[in-house]
Each structure stands twice: as C-alpha cells, then as structure tokens.
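User: Can you recover a sequence for this backbone? Please restate the input before giving your answer.

Assistant: Of course. Working from this structure:
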C-alpha cells in the first residue's frame, strides 16, 4: 500500500495564513458627489463671503449653485476654472429678480453690475439687507424668510420693497450718469467728467 501523504508543514501553513491576513483591504469607494456639491466646494470662499455680507444661508444659494453646475457640465469646465462664476451667477439672478419685482430692466455695462449691486445692498440697513437678499436669491417664500429674520411677513414685504427700490434706483442713476458721460464726450462744451463723476452745466435761458 502506498504511504499516506505527509501532513503539510505547520510553520508553512501558518506563514501562508499570516501573509493572507497582512494584505491591506482595498479602501472603500467614496460616495459619488453631485455636481452641485463639487461646485459648492470649489466656490466655498466666495459663497462664505457673500453669505456673510448678504445674510444668506447655504440653502439660499441652491438655485445659483445648480445654475453653476449646469454651466460646468455644458461647457466641460473644471470647477477651479470658475472661481468667479458663482458670484456672477448670483449677481445675474439677483438683478433678474429685481427686474421682476420692479417690472423694469435693471442692468449695467461691463463689469459694473457686481460693484453697483454690492454698493446698493450696503446702503441698506442690515435688517433690510438680510431679508431682501435672501428673498431675491433663494426660492424660499417670503413668510419663511420673515420668520428666519424674526419679523412679520408685512414688515418683510416692506423691507423687500425698500431694498428693490433702492437697488433699481442706483442702477437707473448709474445708467443716466453713463449716458450723460457719453454725451459729454460726443458734444464737448455741454459737460465734462472728472474722476468718474459726471459734471453737467446748465445752459443759460
């Protein structure tokens, strides 16, 4: 009869088991982030600054972040290339909502809109700004924003009307000043400009 096979070396078996145990486990697959989350992370500093200045909460920026995400996908751009896009999208939305609320066009040439808007909002008292900006930026109802600000809906409506009126007026005044400045260049003698301030002289009658 053939001899029975010898048992395997216990030390060799133990070494094989130890080697199997020492192999590191593959890291867990991180959950896939939505495009909105990627854009929000990329624009974190800009978002935090605007939230502090305008009294916004993270959820208020949802419509703007979604728009930024759509732009990112449509144009195949990397988030880090769009460091200023959130602010631009936010300004565009806010001005669009001001135009809706005031039933008039609100716009500015070139890169003047963000500066004018920031100036206009900072002319408002904080309690007015912290109701007006969230109402114009977010999709939240006014009653919810009023409750968050600790005022009645009627007071919040007054704040929004005041804020929208001031923003619109500042843009209207800027457009008029710009037109007067252009007219002064075309027709010397009617007026001049110095340091960006339009100087107009009335003709004697």
């Amino acid at each position: 009869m053939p001899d029975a096979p010898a048992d395997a070396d216990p030390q060799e078996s133990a070494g094989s088991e130890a080697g199997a145990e020492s192999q590191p486990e593959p890291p867990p697959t991180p959950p896939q982030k939505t495009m909105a989350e990627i854009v929000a992370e990329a624009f974190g500093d800009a978002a935090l600054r605007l939230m502090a200045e305008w009294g916004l909460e993270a959820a208020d920026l949802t419509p703007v972040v979604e728009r930024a995400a759509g732009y990112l996908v449509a144009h195949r751009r990397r988030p880090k290339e769009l460091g200023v896009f959130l602010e631009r999208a936010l300004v565009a939305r806010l001005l669009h909502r001001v135009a809706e609320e005031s039933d008039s066009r609100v716009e500015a040439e070139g890169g003047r809109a963000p500066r004018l808007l920031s100036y206009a909002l900072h002319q408002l008292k904080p309690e007015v700004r912290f109701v007006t900006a969230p109402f114009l930026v977010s999709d939240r109802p006014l009653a919810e924003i009023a409750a968050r600000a600790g005022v009645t809906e009627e007071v919040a409506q007054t704040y929004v009307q005041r804020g929208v009126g001031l923003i619109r007026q500042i843009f209207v005044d800027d457009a008029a000043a710009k037109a007067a400045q252009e007219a002064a260049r075309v027709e010397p003698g009617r007026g001049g400009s110095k340091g960006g301030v339009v100087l107009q002289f009335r003709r004697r009658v």
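That completes the design. Residues 191-205 have pLDDT under 50 and may be disordered.
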